[in-house]
# Entry
Amino acid sequence: MARYVHTPRNTTLREIYVWEFPVRLYHWVNVVSILVLCVTGYLIGNPIVAPNIAEASFSFMFGTIRFIHFVAAFVFFFNFVVRLYWGFAGNKFARWYNFIPFKKKQWQNILSVLKVDILQVVNKKINDIGHNSLASFTYFLTFLAFVLQSLTGFGMYAAMSDSWFPKIFVWIVPLLGGDLATRNIHHILMWVFILFAMIHIYLVFYHDYIERRGVTSSMIGGWKFIEEDVLKEEGEI
# Structure
């Protein structure tokens, strides 16, 4: 689905619908849930001193923090399950074959992106309509981290919950060598997500500046602005 857009520089672009609503919804639910999980998770692991002359039963501050953490964890997990499904049901830009570099062209694209993003020896557009191959592969690795984070989180939660769902993960803690090892993995992954978020935000704005294709706004409205020759090369027109 594409339509013409005329820029002030007399360059004809086509506005193409790339990110469907389920992908955009997944992204922003993920943003909020990971932010809440990181803040509450940090406080659980490094509790602040909060003097209170009232009885502990009246404040229950960390009970509330833990509850918020657990709710956000369920939202995070089931949001990810929906994204797994949409990797099969979504359009060509959301499909799973984009995320694993099986083809030679994908590896060549990864090298090109490294030259632009990391080495910065080339200043040019990366001619991808959806995610470039390096971004796609990085997201695939974060999906694996999502799985491990969910397993370790629900594994620890299983010991304190009577619900049937966390009990499914009761085998995780013994497999990983106990509560301490499981908690350390869970904690380290939190910092991995924080580091990833920082790099991700920087690169989104960086590519938006270089490519001028509406990368940032595309995750709000779903549309990107792509040159005709790129669309012809990709078989979109």
Observations:
- The mean pLDDT is 87.
- DSSP finds ten helices and three strands in the chain.
- The first helix runs from residue 21 to 45.
- The beta strands are 2-6, 12-17, 223-227.
